Amino acid sequence: MKSTGESIGVDENFGMAFYKSQLAAGMDLPKEGKIFISVKEQDKKKIRPIAEKAANLGFELAATSGTADAAKGVDIEKIKKSISRISKHQGCNFKQGN
Questions:
Q1: Burial (CB count within 10 angstroms: exposed 0-12, middle 13-18, buried 19+), residue 19
Q2: Is 18 helix (H, G, I), strand (E, B) or coil?
Q3: What angle do CA 21, 23, 24 make, to 5 degrees?
Q4: pLDDT at 62 over 50
């Protein structure tokens, strides 16, 4: 049987479990940079404290306008989202906007 290189992180907290899995896989988690945030409507009421925490850690933030509005008071660059319907493998294009 060939190994496919999976790793696992176990913890009661999802964030810590993910962190442990990344360490086990030899991945360093970023300590700086820009985070893109986009959440579905039902999760928007929960996003402000998460965005605040990321900003307080020194990350720059970008979000779709609805998500940025839900995190009112947090410095977030609004990004226009246009989804290409040509191919499911092309993903999304994000363009800087107002």
A1: middle
A2: helix
A3: 65
A4: yes
